[in-house]
Design a protein that fits this description.
This protein is an alpha+beta fold. The chain has 2 domains: about 220 residues, Hsp33 domain (3-Layer(bab) Sandwich), CATH 3.55.30.10; about 50 residues, HSP33 redox switch-like (CBS domain Like), CATH 3.90.1280. It is built from 10 helices and 14 strands. The longest helix has 18 residues. Bound molecules: zinc ion. Zinc ion (ZN) binds next to loops.
C-alpha cells in the first residue's frame, strides 16, 4: 500500500465503536484549476482552497443528491466567496476581492460578514439553508461553530494549505449518537486529532494519519472517490439568464456591440451570441439552440 498522500480524492471513515465519522480531502489539480481562473493574490487563493475543501468535506456527510454551496459575503476586501461541491464530487468556486488585503483572519478578509451553507437538492425545488456568522479566525472555526450550535452536531475541521494543495480533515459526531459516553468519546477523539500538524495532513496518506492519531481505535475506511473541478454552466442556462433580461434589453445590447458576449464567472467559459442566435432565442425561448458546451 502506497504511503503517498491521496490527491484529488475524498475519503470517508468511521470509528467502529464510537459514534464519530470523518472525511479526508486533498485537492491539487482541482484547486489549481479553480485558482487559475483569475489572478487571485495568495491569501485569496488560500481562502478559495479552504472553501472548496470545506464544501467537499461537508458534501461527503450528506446523503441526498444535489449541490452543497458555501457563500460568504462581507464588507471587507473580500466581498464574495463561493464554493460548491456536487454529490458526484465536482467542485467549483470563485472570490471577489479588492486590494489591499491586510490580514488572513476572517475579520480582516470579510469585515462584518455572514456565510450561508445551502443544500440544493437535485430532484426537488427544496433547498435547505443555514446561516453562519463569520466569527472565528478561519472558515473551519465558523463552520464548526455552526454545526455545534445550530445543528447540535459537534464538528471539528482541520485545514491545510501549502500553495499547491488545499486539504482538510473533518470529524463529526453521528446524528444519533448511541447512549452512554459519546461526549467523553468525542472529547477523546478531538484531543488526539488536535495533535495533527498541517504538514502531516498535507503529506501523509489518510491511512497513515489515522494510524498516527487513533491507532488504538478500530476504524472503517471507505473507498475514496475522485474529485475534480467541473462547472455546471451550460448554453441553456446562459440562454435563460439572457431571456431574463427581456427582449428590449437584449436587442439594445446587440445593437450596441453587434454580439452578446457572456461568460461564466466560475470557469471563464465564454458564450457568444450573434444576431441570428439572439433572434432565434427570442422567437423560440424553449427550443433547442446551439449545442451544449463540451467539458
Ligand atoms: Zn462555468
Amino acid at each position: 500500500m502506497s504511503n503517498l498522500p491521496e490527491t484529488d480524492q475524498i475519503q470517508g471513515f468511521m470509528f467502529e465503536n464510537i459514534p464519530v465519522r470523518g472525511v479526508f480531502v486533498r485537492l491539487h489539480a482541482t484547486y489549481q484549476v479553480a485558482v487559475s481562473k483569475r489572478p487571485y493574490p495568495p491569501v485569496v487563493q488560500q481562502l478559495l482552497g479552504n472553501a472548496l475543501t470545506v464544501v467537499s468535506l461537508l458534501s461527503n456527510t450528506i446523503k441526498s443528491e444535489g449541490t452543497l454551496a458555501l457563500q460568504a459575503q462581507g464588507e471587507g476586501p473580500v466581498n464574495l466567496l463561493l464554493g460548491e461541491c456536487t454529490h458526484d464530487c465536482h467542485v467549483r468556486g470563485l472570490a471577489h476581492y479588492k486590494e489591499p488585503i491586510t490580514g488572513e483572519s476572517l475579520d480582516k478578509l470579510f469585515g462584518k460578514g455572514t456565510m450561508a451553507l445551502t443544500l440544493k437538492c437535485q430532484n426537488s425545488q427544496q433547498n435547505y439553508q443555514g446561516v453562519v456568522s463569520l466569527n472565528g479566525d478561519n472558515l473551519a472555526q465558523a463552520i464548526e461553530h455552526y454545526f455545534t450550535h445550530s445543528e447540535q452536531l459537534p464538528t471539528r475541521i482541520y485545514l491545510g494549505h501549502d500553495g499547491m494543495h488545499a486539504c482538510g480533515l473533518l470529524l463529526q459526531t453521528l446524528p444519533t449518537p448511541e447512549l452512554g459516553q459519546s461526549e467523553a468519546d468525542w472529547h477523546h477523539i478531538v484531543t488526539l486529532a488536535d495533535t495533527l500538524k498541517e504538514d502531516e495532513l498535507l503529506n501523509l496518506s489518510n491511512r497513515e494519519i489515522l494510524h498516527r492519531l487513533f491507532h488504538e481505535e478500530t476504524i472503517r475506511l471507505f473507498e475514496s472517490q475522485p474529485i475534480s473541478f467541473r462547472c455546471s454552466c451550460s448554453q441553456q442556462r446562459m440562454e435563460s439568464v439572457l431571456l431574463s433580461l427581456g427582449a428590449e434589453e437584449l436587442l439594445s445590447i446587440l445593437e450596441e456591440y453587434g454580439t452578446v458576449d457572456t461568460h461564466c464567472e466560475f470557469c471563464n467559459h465564454h458564450y457568444l451570441f450573434d444576431s441570428v442566435d439572439i433572434h432565434k432565442l427570442l422567437a423560440d425561448p424553449n427550443g433547442p439552440h446551439a449545442p451544449e458546451k463540451k467539458q
